[in-house]
Design a protein that fits this description.
Two copies of one chain form a homodimer. With 336 residues, the first copy, chain A, is α/β, with parallel strands linked by helices. Chain A is built from nine helices and 14 strands. In chain A, helix 2 packs across helix 3. The first copy, chain A, is elongated, with a radius of gyration of 22 Å.
Chain lengths: 336, 336
Amino acid sequence: MVIDENFYMRLALNEAWKYQGLTYPNPAVGCVIISKSGEILALEAHKRAGLPHAEVEALKSAYIVLSGDKKILELTESAQIHNYLLENHNDYFKDATIYTTLEPCSHIGKTPSCATLISKLNIKKLIVGSLDSNEIASGGNKVVNDAGVEIKYGVMQKECDELLLPFWLWQKDKFVFFKWAQRLNGTVDGGIISSSKSRTKVHAMRDVCDLLVIGGNSVRVDRPTLDARLVNGRAPDILIVSKSDDFDKTIPLFSVKNRDVVISDNFDILKNYKNIMIEGGGGMFEYSKDVVNYHLTFISPLIGGDDGFTCSSEKFKILNLDQDEQDIIMWMKREL
Amino acid sequence: MVIDENFYMRLALNEAWKYQGLTYPNPAVGCVIISKSGEILALEAHKRAGLPHAEVEALKSAYIVLSGDKKILELTESAQIHNYLLENHNDYFKDATIYTTLEPCSHIGKTPSCATLISKLNIKKLIVGSLDSNEIASGGNKVVNDAGVEIKYGVMQKECDELLLPFWLWQKDKFVFFKWAQRLNGTVDGGIISSSKSRTKVHAMRDVCDLLVIGGNSVRVDRPTLDARLVNGRAPDILIVSKSDDFDKTIPLFSVKNRDVVISDNFDILKNYKNIMIEGGGGMFEYSKDVVNYHLTFISPLIGGDDGFTCSSEKFKILNLDQDEQDIIMWMKREL
């Protein structure tokens, strides 16, 4: 195994993918910081909108390693962390190298600009995967470069762009992903399949989705609530794809507060939303595949159940493969 | 993500698992070398019996990073590399830390002792996962410790022991693994499923297996040769599990030189072998599961085919998850 720029960018990519689907409306981003002497000081990712960006998470972790000062752990607001680092960095980061899957932001939004922070820490080199096409936030590379930091961009750009695609899509239109849970032998029936951790992750994704799409049969048979109770989260709006309106409206799904439920036989309302998760089986997979950007599957290492997808042949490209305590978590793109 | 001893041992583990099934009669071992200043200098694994041990592969890679001297690349014999390192190390490794999933060997077999080599390079610390229970090779920790190197062992020992289990088993008895290839939707029918790279890997595994077990129906229907032609390798002996002897003996399987083919309705002959691969579908899975130690599946990100495993419910623990250019490669252990 060659230990090179791609090795470190791959670490950043893998860390970032763990939070794909959870960062909306922000992009999933990963960051690695290497000390002047070559030591990995931090490997972090952006976890959720409102929490610090990946670079700030990584600088915070690296600061603790370098300074031994854990007071920074008490700070949760990104602005506080920025200020604390600017006041206390003590040139610890001198000649460090930062890898980030995305050009650092240059705008002051929920947090101060990462590019400005990086430009004030005597960093030697910034290695960037994707360029930010977000007009408001972009220009970070220029800010950093103007401060004398060497910049290299385009390292593993294709892979970083794949990580970033959801962000690009929901900025200009919408991002749609299809999520399903299955056993190793492909079955999707017979009640709960995924681990508790996987199901909690799905609830966290629902919490930041603005629309959740489900098939009519699932609603009739499973009578799901489709909220985000496992993370005390917000329940997304629901589109039930069905030709008829024959649902038992007394099930909890229909009485969640602050939620719209639409029943329709088409996807027209998708245009009103930005971050859309479709949950379903083979029928919905087939019906939705032309509007879906990415597919996400949780594979439990089980054999059992009876029924799996019956759909036309498909080929996917694996974008990221991860594992929680039990299940495989795999993001994929359909190959046409 | 915390960058600690477990992080580096996990890197060594993942690298080693890539060669699981290929190192017989040696164990799969991974090694990471960290410089005095904390930089990852090398991440390597033992790839095949006769090639250098993981520690030697890693020291060779680290030497190139530290010295810039690429002449060592011309050396392929482990003994040559040992000698070259001892003559030219120039104290480059002073105060380095070595992570290895298994205690370094202390005996001189196909290669000189890794423990002796490590003990002469001014290494500061050796961090070990599993202790070697091989009576001939063990004692490496003592050799290294006697030379003044600090030793810590038991880091991720459970995971390192899982990596090492095949070696332990074939030393005292035999190791049996069941390999199958499937699509994402669980199907195993309809011709070639795995990528060219996955199939080449399976041939490399056949090359070092001493027995390959296959079901009678597979032989009747697929008429396979079951050799290791993709790697110009040795064809293993074959056990065809079948109650009847009604095979077309003109198919190539029966005429491969230097190969025994046994037809039997039981597994009695397994006792004569050490490293045994079973290839099959659901029927063979069910029939063999009580003699199988590990399961290995290649999952192609495809939907298609018609038939998958029809067997009783099973639960696995994932031991390692990897990906080649297309397929998922997953080692698992049945949970009883």
